[in-house]
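The instructor's notes for this session suggest beginning with a concrete chain rather than abstract definitions. Hand out the sequence below and ask the class to guess, before any prediction is shown, which regions might be ordered.
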Amino acid sequence: MLRSSLVRSIRATPVRNAVGVRSVHAISTPTLVDLDKRWESMEREEQKNLMDQLAERQKGPWTELTLAEKKAAYYIAFGSYGPRAPLHPPKFQLKVFVGVLGGLAASVALFLGIRSFAAGPPHTMTKEWQEATNEYLKEQKSDPITGISSEGYKGPGHVQSK
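After discussion, reveal the predicted structure:
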């Protein structure tokens, strides 16, 4: 039992020392200020160097990271650049909404314009014509099983107008 606890302490000691010995200096704050605004305009080599430096700093204790380094690491990992950039520019939804309203207004105006030049309803849509059609169909005994000529029929027949 004593031997196994000694073996564990010996094995654990080098790991702690290796982590504790790693003293990578902090990245300068001016390098990290406004990183989210400068990231896209930075050269690939500069981006890679900064990512490598931050990766080295993150291997050590996170309590030693400065706030600027933590923010930069978060932005590099989850920032809105590259494939995570917004698909639509600001106020895109407003433009779509205004465009849809404009399209609807144009279609209503076109409908009313065409409707204003159209002729009136045909003469067959008057109530008198439709009643005369009902009488003609009764004389001809049209549809004697279920239609207008059947016994006890109480429907309107062909009368649609009021």
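Then share the key points. Helices lie at 2-21, 29-32, 35-38, 44-59, 67-78, 92-117, 127-139. The radius of gyration is 42 Å.
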